[in-house]
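Supplementary material to the annual report.
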Amino acid sequence: MDISGGGTGRVLYRILLRAYSPSFRREAGPELLDMFDAARAEARAQGGVLWWARYWARLLADVAVTAGPTRWRQLRRSDRDGGQTVDSILQDLRYAARSLRRSPGFTAVAVVTTALGIGATATIYSVANAVMFRSLTGVRDSHELVTVHATSSDGSSFHAFSVPNFRDLRAGENGLGTLAAFSLLQTSARGAEESEAVAGLMVSEDYFRVLGTRPALGRLLAVGDHDPGGGPVAVLSHGSWQGRFAGDPGVVGQTVSLGGHAFTVVGVAEQGFTGHLALLDIEAFVPLAFQPLLEGHDGRFLDRNFDWLELIGRRADGVSTGEARAALTAIAERLAEEYVADNRGSGVDVRPYSNVFAQQSGAVGGFFTLLLAVAGMVLVVAAVNVGGMLLARGTDRRAEMALRLALGARRARLVRLMLAESVVLFLLGGAGGVALAFAATAVLSSVQLPIPFPIIFDFTPDRRVLLFSLGLALASGTVFGLVPAMGSTRSGLRARLGGGGRLRVREWFVVAQIAVSAVLLTGAGLFLRSLSTAASIDVGMRSEDVHILSTNVGILGYEREKGRAFFERLLAEASVVPGVEAAGLVRMPPLTFANETTSVPLPGAPDGRVGTDVNRVSAGYFNTMRVEIVEGRAFRDAEPAAVVINQTLAARLSSGGSSIGRNVRLGSTDDAPTVRIVGVARDGRYRSLGDEGRSMLFLPFSGFYSEDMSLVVRARGDVGPALADLVRRADPDLPLIQNAAYEDLIGLSFLPNRVAAITASSFGLLGLVLSAIGLYGVLAYAVARRTREIGIRLALGAPRRSVHRMVLRGGARLALIGMVLGLAGALASTRLLRGLLYGVSPTDPLTLTAIGGLLGAVVVAACVVPASRATRTDPTEALRHE
Amino acid sequence: MNDPHGGLRAAVFEILLLLCEEDRHGYGLMQEMATRSAGRWILGPGTMYRTLKEMREAGWIERSPAVARAGETDTRRRMYTITDRGRRVAADEATRMSALVERARDERLIPPAGAA
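Predicted assembly:
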């Protein structure tokens, strides 16, 4: 469905327009619609993540702010014509408050129920708001910012740039006021006792100018700082200054140890600024020029083929994102012609800046949409509950209402009176919900994730969340209060008698409740099933009892030989630590999203080559991780040019025959090494649980050195401290990026799924409890209303069993209709879930059956108790009941 | 229509300036304001309409009578024209603002005129 615009968008806006007074609508409606079209066209041109969500939020706010006054004027006009509307609204509110105070039990249950629904929604919205929408401190006029990505000939985007390409893009007519480059830096800072891993950002000259960041102390980086001859300098984040220097006002000019090198602090960035990416806690900003010092590579600055820079820029005045893209593309095309060998087929892609890494913003947006939908359903269940309660209350007051009508009160006035009650209830519930959201986000903000970068979560609700909750409370109070209000003020014979076979309003409430609960519970059930399936996926290795320790000797600028010697010694010493059964080295630990790729020759493929993931491991890796070799053998550490491939790659390389003994050339450059295949390993999951059928090539560490390696050991007991000791004794400046049980590390791989499952199942449970309470309440009430009828039946000799059956039949009918509608809704919404489910079909019959059974049980329980209470009543007592 | 600091609200001033260039309808005003501010300034239709209405009531702008246009099904676009009084108000505002800018220059907040 295209809810962004077009026909549907216009229809939605037309519905929104009903919030304005009729006379205003007549007068301004066509123009408003016309302006809506203009705003939509413009918003769409801006594009960006969830642009329509923001756009509709703006529209809603616009209507909310401007519709009220037109209604107010309408009321005043009617007052002038003899009505007493304005005063009477205040009167209504006072009356509502009084009447709610008189029934504290009812009020408390209704407020708590509403608070749970609004709290759940506001919490999820707070998190989404913090991750996606909230503008970061120190990033100014972010709507003018764009991120620039390289595209490759296969059409894929989000690639990095080399330094020469960055410089050429920056120098040309690119439509940008400023363009800056940055690269994430994993480094260490020397603390009081030991080195700890910190996140830094290596930035080009204009980084702070692009963002508009200001210094809190000293100055930000200047052009002169980017001369490698000038001595290393750094700008600290405000938090780092407070934490490492205790906020010492004389910090400028002092040094901070990064990666074992002394960097002179030239300034502190403004408070709250931790880089332009949400969640990442960047502590230090250093000029790109010091990359060789910090990471130990050289020659990156001249190599047009070495892509490692991400770009962010600010559009020049009056230049649209599209125009900037066109201008940058023209430069990229020129570069591709000029440097055929390095730049062939590469282009640029320009996107509006977003807080999250651009390559993930789509997935993150979808994830939050899903969570918001789940929370929204909890709110609907809660609101339906309260609606049902109000309905019951309204029915009790029919006599009062009828009397008022008879005495000359207008029906509209009475509806408003009851509406005032529900709005007050929902506003109280909204306040409670916001309090809940504050508490829940405080808990969420303190969560620590097992990832190698320090991150900060601050999900505290802001003004946007408060407005959102207020809007929710008002809207649901009006919608769910209106139906009961209309129902209980309906007069006349038809209302008294009710329809024969058709459902009454109250019964529709029950049906709606069951339907929404069925959708919620189906989602929850699917996630739980998917979690247990994911745990049993064959990942091609065994991670239990494995401990992992990661470090990066590049941080201290180790030369290749020194680094190799360090890792070989670490491996040898770790193997003899008590309790260690096997040990190996690995560059990209599986299921941590890390990856490295190359290509190997494949006759018949386009370009004659096929891409594959690669990993650098020591010979001991296969045994340590229990990676099974199904053909040939594992390589030995003394064979620097022997490789192992997985079954998928083997099948691709040799259709039918064996690939053992074949020589392949890695990569397509002139100096590409040739290696010999000695074994085939069983297929596994490499980057994440989701990747099935990915080809993999294991390179020997002895021939393919890398400075960022992880030690994996299979051991009984906690060997973490012993392993950390080995590293510390070898070099106290070397930070441990990771020292944890492997299972904890790969927990991250399950994270989106797990978060969705926890949210869906806890919300599902909440929904179930709420709807059970609601069902029970509504059914019990219905039975109680029939006490007299039941008494007559019993007095006339009806067996208790048949009365029981009658009540149950009534409940079962509603449950059935509700479940059919709910399951249909669940099936319709599974498209949203597909990406997050592993190994479970969205239409999993087991889950659907279980949910049906569970809801059925709740309905039976909700019917049995009131039914038996009704049949236990003394017929004479019951007859007196009215 | 005035902001708390004594000047015109920015949106009002912007609308007056746009209408000094040429007569426009609501759609055109919306689009122009959004484009010129690179999308930042998307006034909602309700706010825009209210602002225009206030300006009409103050006699700064006028609206053409409704005319059904050929080819447009249910939309009636009405042109807005600036009045002489509107021009005077805009000119006064511009004078006030340039006096402020002069003061900012005197305080060396921004470079002197012509120095860019």
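Confidence is low (pLDDT under 50) at residues 71-75 of chain B.
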